[in-house]
Automatic annotation (TrEMBL):
This is Lysosomal dipeptide transporter MFSD1. GO terms for cellular component: lysosomal membrane. Homodimer. Interacts with lysosomal protein GLMP (via lumenal domain); the interaction starts while both proteins are still in the endoplasmic reticulum and is required for stabilization of MFSD1 in lysosomes but has no direct effect on its targeting to lysosomes or transporter activity. Keywords: Lysosome, Membrane, Transmembrane, Transmembrane helix, Transport.
Amino acid sequence: MTDSQSEKKPLLGAVNEGDDGEEEVLEGCGGTMACNPHRPLHRYLVLAIMCFLSFGSYFCYDNPAALQDTMIKALDISESTFMGFYSWYSWPNVILCFFGGFLIDRVFGVRMGAIIFSLFVTAGQVLFAAGALVNHVWLMNVGRFVFGIGGESLCVAQNTYAVKWFQGKELNMVFGLQLSFSRVGSTVNMNIMQPIYQWITGFGFKNDYTDLGVVLMIGAIMCVFSLFCALALSFFDKRADRILKRAAVTSDEQIRITDVKDFPLTFWLLSIICVGYYVAVFPFIGLGLVFFEMKWGFEPSLANNVNSLVYIISAVASPVFGFLIDRTGRNIFWVILGTVCTIGCHALLAFTFLNPYVGMSCMGLAYSILASALWPIASQIVRNSQLGTAYGIMQAIQNLGLAVIAIAAGAIVDSSGYLILEVFFLACLCVALIAAVMLYLVDASRGGKLNRSAKERKRLAALKEEEEEEKKLLD
């Protein structure tokens, strides 16, 4: 049995027996609660490592935003060239996310996939920093391209790990925690990169771009840290496969590239919700600084504080709402609630002069609700062996939407102003809301699997376990 086969098996419901029918005895350190895969404490140790898996990627993704003025001055580049650092990251992922997910499912497995994509992230950031050191923008673009190959696919691997280890009542909380740590990575980057640059300039390097390259190279340390997390996860996951005797994926279960056409309607509705919602949040934050300065007359520092509220609040609220959703179930209800609340937030910002702290704070809470409830739904729609591909498709569609809408949003601001931009974002959210209601109706017509309460899911899981036990006894 290969590693890529042995890792594609559910953790829950696994037996604690060896090949000869006897339970494997764990001795020494392996028998402690923290090292025993049978114990919840061990899974939470793995969760801590899992949350840091994409920390380096999120930290370095917004390095350009944290150093925007510095980068434009040191490299003597235009705003359009600067924005190219983001486009070189986003456009490739329209395709690469899908193939990254497929490779995780069919070729590498989640363990090797996470390590490979972490290597891409690390190599990309090093190339980006090296380009700054020698003042070659083309090399920096190459670095962002390589970084993008690994960045989004690493998120797919992280989601696949989460479902593998926590499929069941804890999954929404786990996705919330992962989202929280990603936002912490972005927030830390925004707050420390400029002070680090000021500190580096005190060493008196020859050129400004050399200082910039050194700072970006320091940022690569975070990527190396995430690479070590990928290696640690691989060790723990392989060990758990052996101890818990997780069964291999059969040839009938392995996904083929043509299986995508057989994904159910509910999955594509989920993808529409994903793109319709996220394009009304991230591009808005990208353009929000000037919006708050123009409409409310804020100083740049105050406008930046308001603009960052969504990330700050979601970092705290996501695991809380994830825990709440785990206890209540009803994921589609929470998705609809998060979308409706975000529509209200954009309406407040567009049509009133109420302090924007209110609208942005509520948007942070609504974003936390939707993200914690949305992503785990995919694990209830497709088989575990297809999850990497499914999440890859969702990430690819999201990246396509973000890339296109970012361009459209900039054009709308230039031609019509921020009020029309807000109307445009409200239209995108209405599309997401319509898709969410359709998802509820389609799911209800098929038995309401996706919107069950936590209590009902627990009862059905217990019945399924009893049936499997009876089948084993009969065999």
